[in-house]
Amino acid sequence: METKVWHMRDHISEQDLAEIKGQFEASELVVIPTETVYGLGGNACSDEAVKRIYEAKGRPSDNPLIVHIHSMDQLGDFVQKVSPEVQELMRAFWPGPISFILPLKAGYLCERVTGGLNSIAVRMPSHPVGRRILQYVNLPIAAPSANLSGRPSPTMFQHAFDDLNGRVAGIVNGDQSEEGLESTVLDCTTYPFQIARPGAITKKMIETVLPHSVEGKSGLKDGKPIAPGMKYKHYAPDTPVTVLTQLNGPIPNNKDWQHIAFAVPQTLQGWVPKESHFIPLCDDEEDMKAANHNLYRILHDLDSDDEITSAYIYGFTNESRAEAYMNRLMKAANQEVVTGDEL
């Protein structure tokens, strides 16, 4: 399959939008940018399109997809109800990096998009290009991250192109994703709500709007994941990664470090071996926004550098602010953790 590229960083033309709409209406797949990561989009009403999403990614069919919309008016087509509490959260955080799991109204979306559940996760992206496409197409678009299943999610056009060129009808070339990590997924099928996947919108932020509305974390329902990233291996580069914690002083020069990378805050650069590959993760240990933004790009860059055979990536200890970052990093590292004193 020949994959077309639409360049929309500086200009969005009516012709390009019409072509993209035609692809979605024909049940083809188009990669679109969002503020979290690039999404592999397909018409959520088309069984053929959703089947193609799973095939293009190599994704297990019981791993549910998130449906992307541009207007709350679209919810009435496929959601049974939206409680006043959820509506309040939507007004506070949409458009933005949070998905709400809601009770499904059968008959509008194809069955395959839910992964066999009677609920559906819905999101309204804020990225100007992705949002303009959704408005023009005016269809609910299922859009998991635009990468091969298990690989790091794409935050740049090149990441998506490297994984999916030849597998999809087209890819939209937009800016680098601002957030850099997938959306928070909030299960609203029970109350208090439960965070099914951490993201940029934290429990504290949600409870600033609705006090005492979030309790614990949800898992599988009847053996099925209720949100992406819960059941299967995710986010892992080919390069072996280890989480590095408690870096309280210089790492000894007692090993051959020349093929090892250290991705740590710039304030800690002086503590990594000089012959190693230093990768700036963020400014300092409080700079979580930059760490979130840069993590997936770093994971992709590790695989593109032939001189790097393994890497240590800094693990933050601030549990609430770093929850989403550490969730992705621990999976990428297959739970491998060392302290600075152990190197």
TrEMBL record:
Keywords: ATP-binding, Cytoplasm, Nucleotide-binding, Nucleotidyltransferase, Transferase, tRNA processing. ATP binds at residues 59, 63, 145, 153, 197, 235. L-threonine binds at residues 36, 68, 123, 143, 183. It catalyses: L-threonine + hydrogencarbonate + ATP = L-threonylcarbamoyladenylate + diphosphate + H2O. GO terms for cellular component: cytoplasm. Residues 14-201 form the YrdC-like domain. InterPro entries: DHBP_synth_RibB-like_a/b_dom, Sua5-like_dom, Sua5/YwlC_C, Sua5_C, T(6)A37_SUA5, TC-AMP_synthase_SUA5. Its EC number is 2.7.7.87. It is found in: Cytoplasm. One of its GO terms (molecular function) is L-threonylcarbamoyladenylate synthase. Transmembrane segments: none annotated. Belongs to the SUA5 family. This is Threonylcarbamoyl-AMP synthase. It comes from Staphylococcus argensis.
